[in-house]
Amino acid sequence: MNLKQFITQHFLSTRLRELILRIVGIFAIFCFMEAGGLYGYPIDGYPDTGIRRLERLRLRLAGQMQGALPMAGALKSTSSIILHLTENPISSFDQVFVPDALLQKRLDQLFPNRDESYSVALLDITPGKPFRFASRQEDRLFPPGSVGKLAIAAGVFAELARIHPNSSSVRQALLRNRRIIADHWIHSDHHEVPIYDPQTRIFEFRQIREGDEFSLYEWIDHMLSASANSAASTVWKEIILMRAFGQKYPPDRDEEKRFFKSTPRQQLQKLALSVVNDPLKESGIDSRHWQLGTFFTRSGKNIVPGAPSYASPKGALQYLIRLEQGKIVDDWSSLEIKKLMYLTEKRIRYASSPALSKAAVYFKSGSLYQCKPEPGFRCLKYHGNVKNAMNSVAIVETADGRVYLVSLMSDVLRKNSAVDHQTLATQIETIIKAP
């Protein structure tokens, strides 16, 4: 008998039973998150990308190493991941953002007893069927947190295309072969990342340290999969160098240091904002609904002055639509970003819903919390009493062929909303599936 069955059979009070099950859910998600984030990219991607942790996962799947095996929805091959809307022009989002009456009614029924901050934009793009859209407060702006790292992903692929416009294979070779040594840009960051040596089969899960060396592909992977702030600042720094040096990228370390030392701070700010936000604007994403303005590490902020960062459910959904259209830079870039978002190991928050275990999920989550002194209040991680944003964006491809896009954002003070995000994922799957 498992714990859930025991509780259900032995506690007769419905309210008490629900409370205890909720505590169990919170504990499970907390353990899951503390075990180390979530990992993306298809398992067979090591030969193409050189992302070394993928080889460890492949060996585990092949029975050649010990370790937990991926769930059913994590087993898609690189070649089986596709973009669903490349043949659909969608020249204007107004064509798409027209509520489907029945889906809207079902979505509205999920929220009467939840915090007023919950905001969502939902689009069913199942092949062969009409689009279905529903939303709640889809224009509301939130701090994007780590969802903003998707803008950095768009930025790096945009600069690669600018430098090498005629060859995706040359771009991929640069991603594989460009080696970057961690330096002062990484400070500080509490996120841990998976580090694996295929030759020695030594594996570590720890914070990035000065002197660590990863390929540009691996830095991007650490930024999106493990959501490492140190990786986000490092990749953003590299995009600035790509724009500044062009065909002469990459510079050597002395050239890099001279560039950041000699370039005026306001010029650096303008350049930094351009390289991550222009690709969004060029793909048609409304700048009123998404802007990334601030580096993810203290050291990055000290070098490059920041600007406001914000995102809305509508802006994030626009990103997912353009991704599926192949319009985040181009088809190849969009597909690579989608692969980098594909969850092949751990799932958290929205993506951890048991209802999605057999589904392929392409996911990014983000959070940002802030506390102030308050009698009787203790500031905990993801429990901010000033702001406590928690955001999730997901592309869901179910085993029975349904495909839908979700952007969910909330700002529930003094509470970790991870369980609510998981519950909403289950409920949204239910209303999408319903006839």
Features:
alpha+beta; disordered N terminus; 11 strands; single chain; 15 helices; Beta-lactamase; two-stranded antiparallel sheet; 2 domains; five-stranded antiparallel beta sheet; 435 residues
Instruction: Tell me the name of the CATH class of the largest domain.
Output: Alpha Beta
**CA-to-CA gap between the ends?**
34 Å
- The total count of helices amounts to 15
Q: How much helicity do the residues have?
A: 40-55%
Q: What's the total number of strands?
A: 11
Give the CA-based shape.
globular
Q: What's the main sheet like?
A: 5 strands, antiparallel
Query: What is the typical, i.e. mean, pLDDT?
Result: 90
Under the CATH scheme, the architecture of the largest domain is 3-Layer(aba) Sandwich
Structure notes:
With 435 residues, this protein is an alpha+beta fold. The protein folds into two domains: 1-34; 35-433, Beta-lactamase (3-Layer(aba) Sandwich). The protein is 40% helix and 14% strand. It has 15 helices and eleven strands. It has helices at 3-10, 14-34, 46-49, 52-61, 101-108, 149-163, 168-177, 216-224, 229-245, 253-262, 265-282, 298-303, 313-325, 331-341, 418-433, and strands spanning 119-124, 132-136, 179-181, 193-197, 202-206, 213-215, 290-291, 310-311, 360-370, 387-397, 403-411. Strands 2-1-11-10-9 form a five-stranded antiparallel β-sheet, with helices on both faces. The protein has a two-stranded antiparallel ribbon with strand order 3-6. Strands 4-5 form a two-stranded antiparallel ribbon. Helix 6 runs parallel beside helix 9 (229-245), helix 8 crosses helix 9 and helix 13 (313-325) crosses helix 14. The longest helix has 21 residues, at 14-34. The chain is globular, with a radius of gyration of 21 Å. The model is unreliable at 1-37 (pLDDT under 50).
